[in-house]
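Milestone 3.1: sequence recovery, worked example.
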């Protein structure tokens, strides 16, 4: 492909004009999918003809959209703009528009368009279109790192493609792949491994299961099962053919580099990174190239070869910017910050770490956010900026203490039932040690700093009693230390264990989040945001009383559970709850008054809440509808006339949820 790229790119400007039937000798003995997989990497023109021919023969709208997507990907991968939308049908224009929005990192626009298309497909009972759109949403949510939001789509997709009589539109192994990647990133390793094994079983003979073995190996690396990982990667290497895609070969080299890095084999790791870059370094696979350069830079950073580290990390950053990849950009900027911190260049370190933190907050990249917060706090502590050291460390501890349950890979429990408890114990012991280090540093300050030191030690003491394990460890595990709402796992357990209501009574769920909360943080800083969260939940709990359960699902998103209410809560009742929380401005630490509004969705039901995953999917889509239509409102997620793109909706209707 690279040797005749100029010719290819010039000819591809023809876009989707139909080629003559004798342009290439397409192997008519093969399926169109086999021809597509044979030519897609090394002969784009031939691939384009294969897709054009199949588009003319497509059986239904879903297949036409799927083929248009493959055409769009072909254009993007060859660095050609997709500028032929005038010749598209309206549904094709909307679908391709969503893909373009996703490529350009416009998540909201892409999700809105795909969700609307999915809703229409559900209403029209078009299972092929449902499959395609759940596939696209599962894949897109994963691309933007929103794996929990993507899980319902992935689960719907899995249910659809596993139906015995369903004829799939998307290649089954491709559908399994995006589902497995979602499970992996959530730490659901056991489920992911099962799906990867399904991929190996369902792959057609013309596609070697290289990617499946490669991705299984990555899970095994995460689990520190290095020998098994190496066996799977060796199997992947054996399966690679001489004419295999350079991108697939690069993936395997990259995985070997990761494995060798974890095993301390630095020289071998560098060689694998360079092998991978030699294969795709001149392609338009921005994510892959950026990831490779970043891995190489981080490796040199560990070796304290700062010149090479800075060189390769900056290349990774530049490639990520070119490809609009916020995740890789945030990780690259973070690595630069860590490098300067290691070089004791605090000014440049803080500049890059704060930039990484901003990117992580904007695009919800948890690991980058945590690493940046901890490193910023460390630098401020070492430079005797005690207040900033405390503030950044407080947020870091808040997040880690909150997430230490939900972030643990759930598959570990199947390996060793006691591991989770040990992990939690270890997490909090580490935090205690960090706190002790800070306290020791304060004790050693000069007398001029003693006043501030004592005040901060009091604050840190309060933080310690709130955030770390004590004799009341079980009670503390249930509550978010900032807002005192139930933690995510605790509220989910409470909801899932809620039985059917008594006669003439109802269970009510209300999902809500704070409108434009990011602007509060940007304007008043995280202490201001903390004050808003704390005050709102305080008002909410005071209004609802002890019979209601309030839980924090993450960030500014909360859920309320009211059991066995003798009232069927109406929109007016929910608006009163809004008013109780937002009736007057919130006064911040600097005397500023902030007016807050919230958006919510709610459901009343007489049924048990054991199907909370389905309920959450409905509530989440309804909340998205409210936020897309002006915010500061509520909606009855089951009864109000809104589009709910959820296969779960039909199931819940069968159960008579009101």
């Amino acid at each position: 492909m690279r040797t005749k790229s100029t010719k290819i790119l010039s000819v591809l400007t023809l876009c989707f004009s139909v080629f003559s039937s004798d342009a290439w000798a397409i192997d008519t003995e093969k399926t169109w999918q086999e021809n597509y997989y044979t030519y897609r990497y090394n002969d784009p023109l031939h691939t384009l003809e294969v897709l054009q021919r199949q588009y003319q023969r497509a059986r239904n709208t879903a297949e036409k959209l799927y083929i248009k997507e493959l055409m769009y990907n072909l254009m993007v991968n060859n660095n050609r703009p997709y500028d032929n939308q005038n010749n598209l049908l309206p549904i094709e224009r909307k679908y391709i528009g969503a893909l373009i929005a996703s490529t350009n990192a416009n998540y909201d626009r892409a999700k809105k368009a795909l969700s609307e298309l999915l809703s229409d497909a559900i209403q029209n009972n078009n299972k092929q279109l449902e499959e395609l759109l759940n596939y696209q949403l599962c894949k897109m949510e994963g691309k933007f790192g929103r794996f929990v939001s993507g899980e319902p789509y992935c689960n719907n997709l899995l249910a659809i493609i596993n139906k015995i009589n369903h004829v799939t539109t998307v290649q089954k192994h491709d559908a399994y792949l995006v589902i497995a990647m979602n499970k992996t990133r959530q730490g659901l390793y056991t489920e992911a491994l099962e799906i990867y094994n399904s991929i190996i079983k369902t792959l057609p003979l013309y596609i070697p299961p290289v990617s499946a073995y490669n991705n299984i190996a990555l899970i095994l690396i995460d689990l520190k099962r290095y020998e098994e990982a190496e066996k799977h990667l060796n199997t992947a290497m054996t399966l690679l053919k001489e004419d295999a895609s350079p991108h697939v070969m690069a993936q395997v080299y990259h995985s070997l580099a990761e494995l060798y890095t974890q095993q301390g084999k630095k020289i071998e790791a560098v060689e694998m990174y360079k092998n991978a870059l030699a294969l795709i370094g001149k392609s338009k696979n921005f994510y892959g190239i950026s990831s490779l350069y970043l891995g190489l830079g981080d490796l040199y950073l560990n070796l304290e070869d700062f010149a090479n580290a800075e060189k390769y990390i900056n290349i990774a950053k530049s490639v990520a910017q070119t490809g609009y990849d916020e995740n890789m950009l945030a990780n690259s900027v973070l690595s630069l910050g860590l490098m300067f911190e290691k070089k004791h260049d605090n000014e440049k370190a803080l500049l890059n770490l704060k930039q990484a933190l901003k990117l992580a907050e904007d695009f919800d990249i948890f690991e980058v956010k945590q690493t940046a917060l901890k490193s910023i706090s460390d630098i401020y502590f070492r430079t005797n900026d005690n207040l900033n050291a405390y503030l950044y460390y407080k947020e870091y501890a808040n997040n880690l203490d909150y997430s230490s349950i939900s972030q643990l890979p759930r598959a570990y429990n199947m390996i060793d039932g006691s591991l989770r408890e040990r992990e939690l114990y270890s997490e909090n012991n580490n935090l205690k040690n960090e706190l002790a280090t800070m306290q020791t540093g304060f004790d050693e300050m000069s007398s001029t700093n003693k006043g501030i030191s004592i005040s901060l030690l009091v604050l840190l003491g309060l933080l310690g009693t709130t955030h770390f394990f004590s004799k009341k460890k079980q009670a503390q595990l249930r509550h978010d230390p900032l807002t005192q709402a139930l933690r995510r796992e605790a509220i989910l357990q409470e909801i899932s264990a809620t039985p059917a209501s008594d006669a003439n009574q109802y269970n009510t769920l209300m999902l809500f989040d704070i409108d434009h909360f990011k602007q509060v943080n940007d304007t008043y800083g995280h202490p201001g945001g903390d004050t808003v969260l704390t005050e709102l939940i305080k008002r909410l709990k005071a209004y609802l009383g002890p019979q209601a359960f309030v839980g924090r699902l993450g960030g500014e998103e909360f859920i309320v559970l009211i059991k066995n209410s003798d009232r069927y809560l109406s929109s007016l009742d929910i608006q009163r709850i809004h008013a109780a929380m937002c009736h007057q401005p919130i006064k911040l630490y600097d005397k500023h008054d902030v007016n807050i509004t919230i958006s919510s969705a709610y459901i009343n039901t007489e049924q048990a809440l054991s199907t909370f995953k389905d309920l959450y999917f409905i509530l989440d889509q309804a909340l998205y509808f409210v936020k897309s239509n002006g915010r500061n409102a509520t909606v009855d997620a089951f009864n109000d006339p809104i589009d709910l793109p959820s296969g779960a909706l039909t199931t819940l209707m069968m159960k008579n949820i009101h």
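The chain has five domains: 1-147, 208-276, 285-383, 412-478, 488-654. The longest helix spans residues 517-544.
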